[in-house]
């Protein structure tokens, strides 16, 4: 077995690999850039080597610097994780020349399957059904438009060396094909150092289902079931689950056998993933093969009990797989939610900043058999920068069936505390409660169709509003009680807390009465509805568990002016609990209007201006591209909302901007 493994990666996947290596008694080496000097993976590893500046093009994807770190530490094997150099055949070849074992597939397989153009040709030759498209390289935007028109819109423009949604665009017409081609090339060059592009037909209403394969160097290749990855936005997976709620055993077997046949055709060993598009009739089409560990591998581990990272290490050390296809059993259901540093209220644009609070839910098996797992690479106080992927953590739940796993995920999301950055926890919670998701009737268009105007939060219905009003009333009483204990008795008088209150939350107003009883507390509504509540919240705490009429609620609690901010199940509302007389006066207060920024183009996220497409005095039309902002390896084109004349341009290419910095103004 290897004595020391260097992990050529960062973040949560580096931490994940370190855990399996330690379980096997193998020492680990971390590499880090300037931005990651205090990162969790650096702290977890036995050794750490600095490899360069923050941009990945100057550190994590510079082969010579990784090789130098190997020489310095004497590592005898390298695990690449995913992204960065994981599917770079030149890196695998460089390791081979150094006599260092690459914990991954052979170079030939990476070249054949890591290149999406070659892989599609080989898949077709192997008898795997493929999506119609252009398999050759594309010289320029004009050729991209001609090819797209011949295939028929919509088309998918993809980076040949891509992954993780980088270098990928959907084009519905010639203008979008031209623009998407250039944007995909730019992202591919920045993320992978390879700007080759191909185009294929975009299948409408598809499901994205992938097969996990695992092979050894002795000719055995197995499939370990499938993962449903259809909940995506901007072609980036957000929620995954295993198994798929859509496949039957016959289709699962057929997809698995094709994935194994394709793997054997290229002499594959190690872990890999064969991705398919599946239509409503369970017809499936090969998309690509990822010759590496996938981000969503934990859900497969949870339903099979197989540690994929451990198996990759053992296979690389020339061990035979200790189990066969008949031994692979899919047990229960697993869900993975990707926690991203992005603002769902701003169309999921990246967010950066310091994690002023980072408290994941407790991991491990629960009394009811549910399992919670959180793969992460950050610590409280850590910095989320603009240089890398915005994923902060992968929260997973396992249970005996799908709905129980979803409910377990909902509870875990309620307990996950993140402050200091914009993040998608509210959105993840909203999806878990969505009837269509819970029914399993999902496609890759789920987010677009169910949130067409973007995510604006969850408006509490009457049932949810009552529960939160009960919590707010309880919190108000606890706060009032603490104030009395602090102030004590003044003279012969002691302040009395009233029983009658008005609770206002969102569009709901409730007249309530609060009473202490032997079993806890009672909140009675004016219509006669009664709720019993118990809780463990103390003033100053940011999170608490409440039992409201027998239902456990994990609620984030904080002050907001004179109100109580409550966050639960995607709902984020400020509740006001007032004495009846004060409530009447508060209802008369004028509403503060937002600042009018309609004549300004504001930077929607922290990032770098890569281009400005207009000048002062130009007249622009609705939909016209005005500027491009890059953050976390993704380019975002900002467009005019209406016809206007540019009055002033305040930003230039190469300039770093914060959220809401002014890019330009209009007359």
Structural account:
It is globular, with a radius of gyration of 27 Å. The model has no long low-confidence stretch (mean pLDDT 93). Helix 5 crosses helix 6 (116-126) and helix 12 (402-415) runs antiparallel to helix 13. It has 667 residues and is of the alpha+beta class. Helix content is 28%, strand content 33%. The N and C termini lie far apart (69 Å). It holds the Pfam family PCC_BT.
Topology:
Blueprint: E1 4-7, H1 11-23, E2 27-33, H2 40-44, E3 47-52, H3 63-73, E4 77-79, H4 89-98, E5 101-102, H5 107-114, H6 116-126, E6 133-134, H7 141-151, E7 155-163, E8 166-171, H8 174-192, E9 197-201, E10 207-215, E11 221-233, E12 236-242, H9 249-265, E13 270-278, E14 284-290, H10 297-304, H11 308-316, E15 333-340, E16 342-343, E17 349-350, E18 353-354, E19 357-359, E20 364-365, E21 371-376, E22 383-384, E23 391-399, H12 402-415, E24 417-419, H13 425-433, H14 435-439, H15 446-450, H16 462-487, E25 500-505, E26 508-517, E27 520-525, E28 530-535, E29 543-548, E30 551-560, E31 563-568, E32 571-578, H17 580-586, E33 600-602, E34 607-612, E35 619-620, E36 625-631, E37 634-639, E38 644-649, E39 656-657, E40 662-666
Parallel strand pairs: 1-2, 1-4, 2-3, 4-5
Antiparallel strand pairs: 6-9, 7-8, 7-9, 10-11, 10-13, 11-12, 12-15, 13-14, 15-23, 16-17, 18-22, 19-24, 20-21, 21-23, 25-26, 25-32, 26-27, 27-28, 28-29, 29-30, 30-31, 31-32, 33-40, 34-36, 34-39, 35-38, 36-37, 38-40
InterPro entries: ATP-grasp (IPR011761), BC-like_N (IPR005481), Biotin_BS (IPR001882), Biotin_carboxylase_complex (IPR050856), Biotin_carboxylation_dom (IPR011764), Biotin_COase_C (IPR005482), Biotin_lipoyl (IPR000089), CPAse_ATP-bd (IPR005479)
Pathway: Metabolic intermediate metabolism; propanoyl-CoA degradation; succinyl-CoA from propanoyl-CoA: step 1/3
Protein name: propionyl-CoA carboxylase
């Amino acid at each position: 077995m290897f004595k020391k493994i260097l992990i050529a990666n960062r973040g949560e996947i580096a931490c994940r690999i370190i855990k399996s290596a330690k379980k096997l008694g193998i020492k680990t080496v971390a590499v880090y850039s300037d931005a990651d000097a205090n990162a969790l993976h650096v702290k977890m590893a036995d050794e750490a080597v600095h490899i360069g500046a923050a941009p990945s093009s100057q550190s994590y994807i510079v082969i010579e610097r990784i090789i130098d770190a190997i020489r310095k530490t004497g590592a005898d094997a390298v695990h690449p994780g995913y992204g960065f150099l994981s599917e770079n055949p030149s890196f695998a070849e460089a390791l081979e020349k150094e006599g260092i074992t690459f914990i991954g597939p052979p170079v030939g397989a990476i070249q054949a399957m890591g290149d999406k153009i070659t892989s599609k040709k080989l898949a077709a030759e192997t008898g795997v059904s493929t999506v119609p498209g252009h398999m050759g390289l594309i010289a320029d935007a004009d050729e991209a438009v001609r090819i797209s028109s011949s295939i028929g819109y919509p088309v998918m423009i993809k980076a040949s060396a891509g992954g993780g949604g980088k270098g990928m665009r959907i084009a519905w017409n010639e203008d979008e094909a031209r623009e998407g081609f250039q944007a995909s090339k730019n992202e591919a060059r920045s993320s992978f150092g390879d700007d080759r592009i191909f185009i294929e037909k975009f299948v409408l209403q598809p499901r994205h289902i992938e097969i996990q394969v695992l092979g050894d160097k002795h000719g055995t290749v197995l499939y370990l079931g499938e993962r449903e990855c259809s909940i995506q936005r901007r072609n980036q997976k957000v929620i995954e689950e295993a198994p798929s709620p859509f496949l039957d055993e016959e289709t699962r077997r057929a997809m698995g056998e094709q994935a194994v046949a394709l793997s054997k055709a290229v002499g594959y060993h190690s872990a890999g993933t064969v991705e398919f598009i599946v239509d409503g009739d369970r017809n499936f089409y090969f998309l690509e093969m990822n010759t590496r560990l996938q981000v969503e591998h934990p859900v497969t581990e949870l339903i099979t009990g197989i540690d994929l990272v451990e198996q990759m290490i053992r296979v690389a050390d020339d061990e035979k797989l200790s189990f066969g296809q008949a031994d692979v059993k899919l047990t229960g259901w697993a869900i993975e939610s990707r926690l991203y540093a992005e603002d769902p209220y701003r169309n999921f644009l990246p967010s950066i900043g310091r994690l002023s609070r980072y408290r994941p839910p407790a991991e491990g098996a629960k009394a009811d058999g549910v399992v919670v797992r959180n793969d992460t690479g950050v610590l409280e106080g850590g910095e989320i920068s603009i240089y890398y992927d915005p994923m902060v953590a992968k929260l997973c739940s396992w249970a005996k069936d799908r709905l129980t796993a979803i409910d377990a995920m909902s509870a875990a999301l309620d307990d996950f505390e993140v402050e200091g950055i914009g993040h998608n926890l509210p959105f993840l919670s909203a999806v878990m409660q969505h009837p269509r998701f819970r029914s399993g009737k999902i496609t890759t268009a789920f987010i677009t169709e169910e949130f067409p105007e973007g995510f604006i939060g969850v408006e509490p219905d009457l049932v949810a509003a009552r529960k939160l009003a009960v919590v707010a009333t309880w919190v108000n009483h606890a706060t009032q009680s603490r104030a009395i204990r602090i102030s004590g008795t003044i003279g012969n008088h002691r302040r009395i807390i009233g029983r009658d209150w008005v609770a206002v939350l969102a569009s709901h107003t409730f007249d309530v009465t609060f009473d202490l009883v032997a079993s806890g507390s009672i909140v009675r509504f004016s219509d006669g509805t009664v709720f019993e509540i118990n809780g463990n919240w103390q003033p100053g705490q940011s999170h608490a568990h409440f039992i409201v009429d027998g239902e456990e609620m994990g609620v984030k609690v904080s002050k907001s002016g004179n109100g109580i901010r409550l966050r639960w199940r995607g709902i984020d509302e400020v509740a006001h609990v007032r004495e009846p007389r004060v409530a009447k006066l508060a209802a008369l207060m004028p509403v503060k209007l937002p600042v009018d920024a309609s004549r300004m183009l504001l930077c929607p996220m922290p990032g770098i201006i890569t281009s400005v497409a207009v000048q002062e005095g130009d007249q622009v039309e609705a939909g016209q591209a005005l500027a491009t902002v890059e953050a976390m390896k993704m380019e975002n084109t900002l467009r005019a909302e209406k016809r206007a004349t540019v009055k002033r341009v305040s930003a230039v290419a190469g300039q770093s901007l914060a959220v809401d910095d002014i890019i330009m103004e209009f007359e």
